[in-house]
Amino acid sequence: HVQLVESGGGSVQPGGSLRLSCAASGYTYSSICMAWFRQAPGKGREAVATIYIAFRPDDQRTYYADPVKGRFTISQDKAKSIVYLQMNSLQPEDTGVYSCAAVSCPRGVVVAAADQYEHWGQGTQVTVS
Prior knowledge:
This protein is mainly beta. It is built from no helices and 11 strands. The strands form 2 sheets. Strands 2, 4, 5, 6, 9, 10 and 11 form a 7-stranded mixed β-sheet that branches. It is globular, with a radius of gyration of 14 Å.
């Protein structure tokens, strides 16, 4: 049973930074896609960043939505099974509920669409004002 637990949200002024964490447990996949999605008030859920992780042989690929390229970085701590989202130069339009998601993905295939993700965290609020 895959579980995802997020932490690190909060309030910050424009130009500030936050780091979100997603601790994953219970998965035994040989390759996994993990992603951060966000949902602003009155808007639909949008993908922010995705990381593809494969084991034996190890492989990692990252992808970003255009609005966050150059400002956000998704990374993993393999030993701790934690995926991070470092968010710099935050702007008011980055405000929303950020959710971590995971799905087993075929080796070499990066899953992008929210409806393809099977496991979700509880979400964490990020407010930039």
